[in-house]
Amino acid sequence: MKDNTISAVSNKVLDVDLTTGNIGEIEISDEDRRRYIGGKGLAIKLLFDHIKPKIDPLSEENIIVMMSGPTSGTAAPAGGRFVVCGKSPLTGIFASSIVGGSFGLSLKRTGFDGILIRGKAKAPVTIVVNDKGAKIEDAKKFWGMDTYEFQEKRKKDGDWVTIGPAGENLVNFAAIASGNRFAGRCGLGAVFGSKNLKGVVAKGTKKVWAKNPEAFKKAVNIARKKVKSHYMTGENLPELGTPGNVMVYGSNGIMPVRNFSKTNFEEKEKISGEYIKDNHFVKNHGCVGCPIQCGRMGKYGGKEIVSPEYETLALMGSNLMIDNVEDIARWNDLLNRLGLDTITTGSVIGFVMEMTEKGLMKSGLTFGHSEGIDQIIEDIAYRRELGDEMADGVKALSDKYGGGEIAIQVKGLEMAAYDPRGCTGQGLGFATANRGACHLSGSTHAIEVGSYLEQHGVKGKAEFVKFLQDLTDAVNSSIFCIQTEFPFLEENFAYKNTPLPIMQLVMRYLPGIATATTDLSDYANILSGLFGEKFTTKDFVQAGERTFNLERLMNCREGISKDDDTLPDRLLKEVREDGWPKIELEKMLVKYYKLRGWSDEGWPTLKTLKKLAIPAD
Ligand code: SF4
Is the sign of the CA dihedral 539, 543, 549, 553 positive or negative? Predict the structure, then answer.
């Protein structure tokens, strides 16, 4: 192709060493490209190749990798996101966070698929990337600015990722902002802070082309029609966004209430997507080029700000027994500006409220009362007084003060807003997800609530958890938004034409057949067009399975084993108010390990690694 264009895969990654100031390039082999696709897969592979085991996540030996994907900058629907990966200071294991905004697209247009950042600068810096390469610039005068203020001041430079005061102060759950979207989970913002890295800006001008434009266009046209016609992506998400989940999950006993101790929040309507739409909605917003635009701006307290997502409404709302959406929206704005993960913050505050109630901690924070929450958010971000201890997360607090049984975390990551006693497959997903209690590693809850699988029991759970985890790693490697899983799976012939009771029977009693025959051709056809060569659905799913196992192998080397694949005692032992049966986690785990080809201790076996072409040492 002519000048100023770039193929959907350049196979070039910038390599920036903040200690030495050296800037180089890493070439991705065609073999790795096929095996890991891009995005999350290649980011994990780069960490595997370049990071030493057992390093301190906040030392200069940690590495951050940010990768766009083959779909970035193309007409593929919902392909404008990117991934940030590194070792987490919150969990001590490997972490990834997928985020929107415009940075991924701008980075891709510079001609680099991604950027790897190592070392530590002596004083605050930014990294500037454009079509010619990268340079490191002094950023002392910007240190201390909040995420929105900094991006506003420097917007002429391009599209930014940046941290706020929380990242600078090494809060274990500091987020990275990309516009007004956030890579929130696992504290990778603190890794930026530990490297004295305020932000990275990209300004690319190259046009991205598919290697087989006709095949790509045909596949994209089919896919876009499905996105439009599916209820979730064509109607529900554009109309209500993720807050549409409040009434669905709140009415089915899934939304967390009072630090996961109750099953019903009476006032849920007051924090619902429907309520926000009627009383606060201003306009939709979302990732570049996405036809869904699931985010929304709202008017709260006379100001137009980003409206909270479902997870924030649940963790900062029902989890704290707060029903005032104005308060939650104000906290959401404050958390975004300071650069804090809203899920972990809500979980930490809920834990401290319950510990205070039990007389195990002193805080002045109480369920159902907003007083003190604005202050404690600031104290966490600036590591002041009790906020300094809370800045280390729920696990660290329970290690110090006790209350491990009510500390709602797995592998050190606070749980997202789905009570696994009402979606047991999601419980297995939380127990086995590589970054901890993560709902985005395979959203099994979406097929358990009023849908294909039952909410309780074990039927079909292990099979679908594995399937969705592998699928989601493949989706995140291609850099499609996971919301595409609704239309790309359910707008196909078998799902559309089979009555629900039959689908339920097949998925519950013949899950192996159901997962193996699920049509994933939209993903494979779009990637084939981008790569200019046949990429099958088998290649696609296997790339996800490979990524999942490589990350697990890296975590096992950090000390993770079967003992860590568990859930908090509260969720395993306390009987729910609605009397639902307990989660049979052990039974599901045994089956899951067998399906994964892992040993009884939870390690991928040599046979599994060989099958997936993962190096064993
Ligand atoms: S659905 Fe929402 S999160 Fe996903 S790409 Fe579109 S705007 Fe971004």
Answer: positive
